[in-house]
Amino acid sequence: MASTSCITTCDERPLDETPTWAVAMVCFVLVIISLFIEQLIHHLGEWLWKKQKRPLYEALEKIKSELMLLGFISLFLTVVQDPVSKICIPRSVGRSWHPCDINKHIDDQYLDPCRIKGKLQFASKYAIHQLHIFIFVLAVAHVLYCITTLGIGKLRMRTWRAWEDESKTIEYQFYNDPERFRFTRETSFGRKHLHFWSNSPILLWIVCFFRQFYASVEKVDYLTLRHGFAMAHLAPQQEKNFDFQLYINRALEEDFTDVVGISPVLWMFAVLYFLTTTNGWYSYYWLPFIPLIIILLVGTKLQVIITKMGLRIQERGEIVKGTPLVEPGDDLFWFNRPALLLFFIHFVLFQNAYQLAFFAWSWVSS
């Protein structure tokens, strides 16, 4: 009797009326896929640990935490979609803040208990299901976007290997003789950064804005920063054997550990993105420009920092001995916080991933 009642009232066939072989097949496939992914992550972690890639290992652990969070979100949405779909709200509230310009009477075509009461659903089961899929796509897109960015960064750094090898040659040691005196402006670093516009804040930012597109990191910058780092952290006789590129590579991997995760702040930004995707706000016009503006400001700021380090060399004297010695400092960064630039980069990566995920989700769902 219960089965007959279910057949007449349910839109889809329940579990007790589904063939057991179909249920077993679905469970088998899900278990196999889950075990494969779990073993893949486990062996990847062991390989990173053996290769002494501690930052990447920590990044993998963070990805595992994100997967656990996604699993909890998935379970929670599955559990609450039925009671949430039964919440009824007034029509005036339910017809506000739509992402698209829709007919005000379009909600009347959907049959649900709220319509009988003259109200609308707070959120339908299908809407929650779509949100469930989008959150999963967003997390996957963010991780893949960060991994792609890391790969591009490593490829870019390969071009620096020739500069690092050059720093160990006899010719380099001769040209950068520590006993050699030169005018600051006549050094390669000075010729690039010390000009009439260097002391003007407005001209400095304008030049640095355009410089980031064609000369973001040149050999003279790399070698000068390498020398400054070695003098600050190593003994003079250790500089020749120091591998600055290896250090930068490790620093890049440590930064990747920070940006690969989705922090609570970024989840809040995701909520704000959903809120602003409202008809009449035209967020699809101005929202994509936010990461573009931020990344251009960050790139310009980094160029300004390098130039200001050159100005500090000049302030110490018009003549330098050996290679110009740059002295980085937290005061060169916004609010004396270098980590703020990393947060902006993290934010840009997340928002770009959000845009890509939204495009992919909209394209597949359409």
UniProtKB/TrEMBL annotation:
The family this protein is said to belong to: Belongs to the MLO family.
Transmembrane helix among keywords: yes
UniProt-annotated location(s): Membrane
Membrane topology, as annotated: Multi-pass membrane protein
TM ranges: 21-42, 131-152, 256-276, 282-306, 340-364
Name of the protein in its database record: MLO1
GO biological processes: defense response
The keyword Membrane appears for this protein: yes
InterPro entries noted in UniProt: Mlo
One GO cellular component term noted in the UniProt record for this chain: membrane
Record key words, sorted: Membrane, Pathogenesis-related protein, Plant defense, Transmembrane, Transmembrane helix
